[in-house]
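Much of the work behind modern protein science is quiet bookkeeping, done one molecule at a time. The protein below has been through that process, and both of its lines are reproduced in full.
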Amino acid sequence: MQHYLEQLIDDLHKATWGMKPPLKIWEDSEADPDDELELDDMSQVEKYLYGDAKPISGITGIAQEQLPPVEKLNKEQLALLAVELEKLLQYFHFYLDFPKDYPAHLRYAFIRKFWEEKHVALSFGENHIEFCDYDEANCPFPGYCYTCKEVSEQMKFDEQVNQKDHSTKDFNLNSILPAPSEIEAWVKKQGFDNDDRELDDIFGVSENNDPAKDFVGGFFNDDGTRIDPESVPVPGLCIVCKSYHLDDSEEEFLCMMNRNDQRNNPNFICGAFKKM
């Protein structure tokens, strides 16, 4: 078996020699693979446009039959193969999401089963593969992963905080508002009672105080902050969309607002996408 493993590892190394050149979409978009945002956007575009999933064996050139069954290997051999296979998969942009301290020899069974799946091959970027469905009762990494438990505890904590924040059982609005007599005393102290102005004028609300005259045109978020159109990232999906290249101010406005709404989302989605 040891001789076979040495030959298999040699085959794994050779599998990286015949990497295919990037798809033409990368050249057309002029995206920078060294720019993390552009890299992530264009990787999603590549998966969207070239979504024909292929067997892992077809992508890597290594057949599942070449990978020995788990029961045929000892602990050291399992760990050795797991490390080499993860390196190979990362070369083809597949990153398997294991818990940080999950032992290498236990990873082999998951990796070998991964060879049964089909995925879209990427030219750049990282295609993360999860083995967890976030069901704590069926955790694939018992004793090594506590994400589900931590999420559950955080959700319970947030729920308790929200219930406490929204409770109005002992809240009395009148206890925090000034009494009419206090308002009248304050007005006299400020000397406002000696002129003819109404209270609405004193507090800045009148026909002469038109907030519309201070309006500044532009685009704004829901919280009122101004949007600088130049600061809104342009996802790779937009670059290969017909609408992006049209000289249509209304269309550009809608596209810009959609991009701004999703500027922090890892995966940009557009229902109006039209391939060039």
Remarks:
- The radius of gyration is 30 Å.
- The first strand starts at residue 54 and ends at 55.
- DSSP finds eleven helices and six strands in the chain.
